[in-house]
Amino acid sequence: MNHHRYIYHVLLHVIKQTILILLFIYPLVSLSQPVVVHTYGDSIIYRGHHFLIGKKHTGIGFGNFIYQNGIKLTFLDKDTLTNGISISLSQRHQLKTTNGVEIGANITTSYVNGAAIGFVNSIYEKLNGISFSVLYEYNWKTNGVAVSGLFEMSDYMKGISIGGLVDIHHKMNGFTLTGAYESVDSLKGVSIAGVAINADNTNGVTISLINITNTGHGLQIGIFNEAKSYKGVQIGLININKSKKHLKLLPFVNIK
């Protein structure tokens, strides 16, 4: 008889504690039903089921939020604004902004102000800060540091760009480093590549086994250096400056 009464009191205690815990957590938990469309500026965006531990727009969220402060965890991230940390497996890009840290296997976002880590690839419209991608990264406009394990590409880059094998830029102001090949339309700064650098216009320093540029001025260092119109110094085994009237090809050093 005493044994049954003991079990009864234990169960009653567990029930009371469970009720107290639920009463404490309930004010902190927000559940929402799916909302099909919302307007964000001039765009129409989608928000699905989400779950928030916190109050209003602040806390730890699971799912897609149009606006959130804190930490957000989701499988497929859609068009949202996050101030804090956003973690997802993949993203569907239309209009997404992260002020803080963006982490994902496949990152496709509009704006990142802070840091971004992509375990497969990363694609941004504008990045202010630091980004790292294991395989491939493309940025339309970057101010800061961009690092990629294999391929690094950008339209407008200001800062430091590091690509494991290939670096491709339309306009680069700063420093680039790649293991094999660098292609740039306009370079202001320093570029270092393991095998070759092909540039349309350079103002600065290019260092590689092979340096080829159309126009520019500065310094070329490599085994083979070639330029159509160049004012500066070429240091290498073979140096060709086609804009010179005489001695266009010189070994070791060519100066104009």
What is the strand and helix layout of this fold?
Elements: H1 2-25, E1 29-32, E2 35-40, E3 43-47, E4 50-55, E5 58-63, E6 67-77, E7 81-91, E8 97-133, E9 136-148, E10 151-163, E11 166-178, E12 181-193, E13 196-207, E14 210-221, E15 224-241, E16 249-255
Mind explaining what this structure looks like?
With 256 residues, this protein is mainly beta. It has a domain of 88 residues. Helices cover 9% and strands 73% of the residues. The strands form two sheets. The chain has a 14-stranded mixed sheet, with no helix packed on it. It has a two-stranded antiparallel sheet with strand order 2-3.
Task: Give structural attributes.
mainly beta; elongated; 256 residues; two-stranded antiparallel ribbon; 14-stranded mixed sheet; 16 strands; single chain
Largest sheet: 14 strands, mixed
Strand content: over 45%
Helix content: under 10%
Low-confidence stretches: 22-48
Nearest-angstrom radius of gyration?
28 Å
SSE pattern: HEEEEEEEEEEEEEEEE
Average pLDDT over all residues: 80
Q: Number of DSSP strands?
A: 16
Shape: elongated
Structural class: mainly beta
In DSSP terms (H or I, runs of 4 or more residues), the helix count works out at 1
Distance between the termini: 106 Å
Q: Quick summary of this structure?
A:
By secondary structure, the chain is mostly beta strands. The protein has one helix at residues 2-25; strands spanning 29-32, 35-40, 43-47, 50-55, 58-63, 67-77, 81-91, 97-133, 136-148, 151-163, 166-178, 181-193, 196-207, 210-221, 224-241, 249-255. The chain is elongated and about 100 Å long.
